[in-house]
Task: inverse folding
């Protein structure tokens, strides 16, 4: 498989190059050149296949020229000691639970696969890398957990002091080893600015092998297609072609599912479920894309007013609104509807939903009311409700239980280095780390 920038079709790179570059030099995002036909894979898959088995098949077919079969096997086993779970919520709605990894969010799948890929690539040449990333909470915890203990890699995570939840801060700051947490005196925007300035600093680039693990990296995006394929395999014996509902903010998760369809997976379609930050549903209904400042909501990981991965969707559908709208529908859900959905499913079924999953469930209900023949709708459950204790408690009056991995981290000691919000402070830390 080869990849090109969304802004320059002549910039053709390998998967390894795309992984370590992250963003293309022209500012575009890497996406596949070829439309691979994986129909033979989908025909032979069935519910007996575990997630690691499905992931191995996908790696072998997509990246067979980059990893040997032995390397592919080791890669997926190291990347995925956890698995998605498919559960029935109602007779027509299934939940694809993606929160059984170390940070209890769907981002574990992409981050862990990226870490395993980098580890393989670096070990071949005895190279090293310094992962530099900024976080407002959730992404950083997934990256920290995924890269902890990886050979040849150090991780430096910047987070805004006093602006992440106590639980998120513990997930970032209690690992130690090759994971270094920097508590920045400032905002998330300051953290992001400092990271961008570091990547542009000539001395740092020459002396320190910096790379990124942010959400636009292709190495985080492609593996998210694997759990769509696994879910399809689980339902195949029932003769069902699923409709996928994806709670969407930056649209990487939805893009990964659309890739699986593009490679031949039989599905009925996709539903992009957003909160009031609905620029993509608006585009799907009108053909006009109008980015705007994001609005703060209860489903805060989806508060994105100009989703970067929409550029990949436009490239895949060659800018054709009608073609995209034939595959993807959009739905907007308010905070009031989100709280009502959380309360209703606890009251009627004793099921806890986090606010992002609740947006997806409400959108799925509307789809089923409006259109016949779309069931089953597989709604992606993107985070454990325990990660959003305050929102769930506000809806129910009780707190959901924490999973063991979150309980354990609360008891650990925080280890972070406090720095001012300047490039000079970050640069000094990096050069000292790298020696």
Result:
């Amino acid at each position: 498989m080869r990849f090109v920038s969304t802004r320059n079709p002549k910039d053709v790179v390998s998967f390894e190059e795309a992984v370590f570059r992250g963003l293309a030099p022209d500012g575009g995002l890497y996406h596949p050149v070829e439309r691979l036909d994986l129909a033979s894979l989908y025909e032979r898959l069935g519910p007996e296949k575990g997630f690691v088995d499905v992931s191995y098949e996908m790696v072998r077919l997509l990246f067979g020229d980059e990893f040997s079969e032995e390397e592919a096997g080791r890669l997926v086993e190291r990347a995925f000691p956890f698995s998605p779970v498919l559960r029935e919520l109602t007779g027509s709605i299934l939940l694809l639970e993606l929160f059984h990894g170390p940070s209890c969010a769907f981002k574990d799948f992409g981050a862990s696969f990226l870490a395993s890929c980098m580890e393989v690539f670096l070990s071949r040449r005895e190279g090293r890398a310094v992962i530099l990333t900024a976080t407002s909470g959730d992404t950083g915890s997934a990256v920290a957990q995924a890269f902890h203990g990886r050979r040849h890699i150090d991780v430096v995570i910047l987070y805004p002091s006093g602006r992440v939840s106590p639980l998120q801060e513990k997930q970032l700051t209690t690992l130690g080893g090759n994971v270094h947490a920097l508590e920045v005196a400032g905002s998330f925007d300051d953290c992001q600015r400092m990271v961008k300035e570091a990547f542009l600093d000539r001395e740092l680039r020459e002396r320190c092998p910096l790379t990124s693990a942010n959400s636009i990296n292709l190495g985080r995006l492609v593996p998210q297609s694997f759990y769509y394929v696994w879910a399809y395999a689980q339902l195949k014996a029932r003769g069902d072609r699923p409709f996928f509902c994806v709670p969407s903010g930056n649209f990487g998760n939805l893009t990964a599912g659309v890739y699986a369809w593009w490679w031949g997976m039989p599905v009925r379609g996709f539903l992009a479920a957003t909160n009031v930050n609905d620029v993509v549903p608006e585009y799907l209904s009108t053909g006009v894309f109008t980015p705007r400042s994001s609005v703060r909501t209860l489903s805060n990981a989806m508060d994105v007013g100009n989703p970067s991965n929409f550029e990949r969707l436009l490239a895949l559908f060659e800018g054709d609104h009608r073609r995209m709208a034939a595959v993807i529908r959009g739905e907007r859900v308010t905070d009031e509807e989100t709280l009502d959905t959380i309360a209703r499913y606890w009251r009627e079924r004793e099921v806890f939903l986090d606010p992002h999953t609740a947006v997806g469930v409400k959108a799925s209900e509307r789809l089923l009311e409006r259109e016949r023949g779309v069931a089953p709708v597989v709604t992606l459950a993107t985070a454990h409700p325990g990660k959003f204790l305050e929102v769930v408690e506000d809806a129910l009056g009780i707190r959901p239980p924490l999973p063991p991995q979150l309980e354990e981290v609360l008891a650990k000691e925080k280890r972070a280095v406090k720095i001012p919000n300047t490039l000079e402070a970050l640069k000094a830390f990096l050069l000292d780390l790298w020696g």
Notes: Residues 60 and 339 are 43 Å apart (CA to CA). Residues 107-125 form the longest helix (19 residues). The chain has a mean pLDDT of 93. The radius of gyration is 21 Å.
